[in-house]
Write a structure and sequence with these properties.
mainly alpha, rod-shaped, 91 residues, single chain
């Protein structure tokens, strides 16, 4: 091999290394950022599902008497006339 050929190969390898790891935003950083972007998009999608379910629950609490009764019984211990409420209290 001639000196120019070795210098050309070394220069090509150097440029390739600079493209992958060099600079403020090299290829390795770009790949990391793309992975983080995918993770954040997945989190946003999960939060949208949670928001939709909470919106449905809020709508049901405002308009659905069966849901209102269930919540009143579970959270506030309310009962109908003629029913007996038993509460189990741990020691």
């Amino acid at each position: 091999m001639t000196r120019t050929r070795i210098a050309g190969i070394a220069g090509g390898v150097g440029l390739l290394a600079l493209a992958v790891w060099g600079g403020e935003y090299g290829t390795a950083d770009w790949i990391t950022i793309r992975r983080q972007l995918a993770d954040e998009r997945a989190k946003v999608a999960a939060l949208r599902v949670e928001i939709d379910s909470l919106a449905k629950l809020a709508r049901d609490l405002e308009t659905n008497p069966a849901v209102q009764e269930r919540v009143a019984r579970e959270q506030f211990g309310m009962i109908r006339d003629g029913e007996v409420l038993y509460r189990v209290v741990p020691k």
